[in-house]
């Protein structure tokens, strides 16, 4: 009963947040906005296409793109071939107009990647912020994996992207999402996250969190060399489960089982109690109600005990009154109880 109540309380504070920027929603019937006038220029490993209004921030972005690509290549142990096209728009209208034909950017996305086309789309208004740089690095990871291999599970792509960007590291939201999912038995089997993520925001959050944790767990256990071998095998056309077994010398099922045991110890539920004010108020209310009920029961038990004692006293008086020559300590006869409470007989003397 207590466990069910705890699960209900923990579930109540699971934050509902929009999913991180991922990829475009394919809608072939979508008609793009009017064409945007653009300028183009190149850096060593990028081809930049910027709207006229976004030319200045795009030129400032070019050297940073090279640095971000170096960071991604260093962390995954591989760089991808060719020049990646980066489209830089300014404002939502230009952003949607510069998306690939047949794709509608989600309203929450500020950067998108099309790995098959080797194209990234960004909004110049956001890339100047630290959050924008993180999102751009995230999309470059998708480009890297897509160019280096095919058939990556969705959970692996998102997990690697978040490991490289440290998007969730040290965030209380990440901790609470994992702790609540574990306490309420809501972690997904990774096979269920192979082709895509669930639709509800709170479920998407769990999927992203556990994907991030699992890839970080695998990287810590097997290291960059085995990860590089996995990428090479995927580039050779080996299916993911076979490449995983050959690179890590174990099966995906065994690693998933070890991961579930690992996170159960890593994310206990009790710190969540101190991360949510709403939960604390809920628990306080429950405790107040429980204390009130307990107090009522204690008062009822005390009154019942008093009643029982009074009945015993009356019975004792009657019994003692039938004894011949029964007197109290002061030599008087046993009659009604002595006034006051509790009444008790210290001794009884019988005459001869």
Describe the fold and architecture.
With 352 residues, the protein is an alpha/beta fold. The protein has three domains: 129 residues, no CATH class; 129 residues, Zincin-like (2-Layer Sandwich); 74 residues, no CATH class. 53% of the residues lie in helices and 10% in strands. The chain is built from ten helices and nine strands. The strands form three sheets. It has a five-stranded mixed sheet with strand order 2-3-4-7-6. Strand 6 and strand 7 form a beta hairpin. The longest helix is centred in the C-terminal third of the chain and has 45 residues. The relative contact order is 0.10. The C terminus is likely disordered.
Oligomer: single chain
Give the tally of β-strands. 9
Please outline the major beta sheet: 5 strands, mixed
- End-to-end C-alpha gap: 65 Å
How are the strands of the largest sheet arranged?
Answer: 2-3-4-7-6
Structural category is alpha/beta
Q: List SSEs in N-to-C order.
A: HEEEHEHEEEHHHHHHHEE
Strand content: 5-15%
Q: Tell the overall outline.
A: elongated
Low-pLDDT regions = 13-32, 341-352
Q: Domains counted in the coordinates: how many?
A: 3
Count of helix runs: 10
Compute the CA-based radius of gyration.
36 Å
Fraction of helical residues: 40-55%
Mean pLDDT: 79
